[in-house]
Design a protein that fits this description.
Largest sheet: none
Strand content: under 5%
Helix content: 55-70%
Distance between the termini: 33 Å
Number of helices: 4
Length: about 70
């Protein structure tokens, strides 16, 4: 059985930390509950869409391997 440390080391995604205004945080939590996904998923999805909107060619490379995009 894999330990938590081993599982974390396999993850290729870097981590980021951000402070959000309370109203934004609560809205993101509500979206996560409605979609039945994690808060992290909602934030990742929003960030990917922001990058794709801002830099369309760069956004294509981010979502190229994601079947939901």
């Amino acid at each position: 059985m894999a330990t938590a440390k081993k599982m974390r080391s396999k993850s290729k995604m870097p981590r980021a930390s951000a402070s959000l205004p309370p109203a934004v945080y609560e809205t993101l939590e509500q979206i996560a509950r409605e979609k039945k996904v994690s808060l992290s998923w909602v934030i990742r999805d929003a960030a990917e869409k922001y990058v794709a909107d801002r830099w369309p060619l760069f956004g294509q490379s981010i979502t190229a391997g994601d079947p939901e995009k």
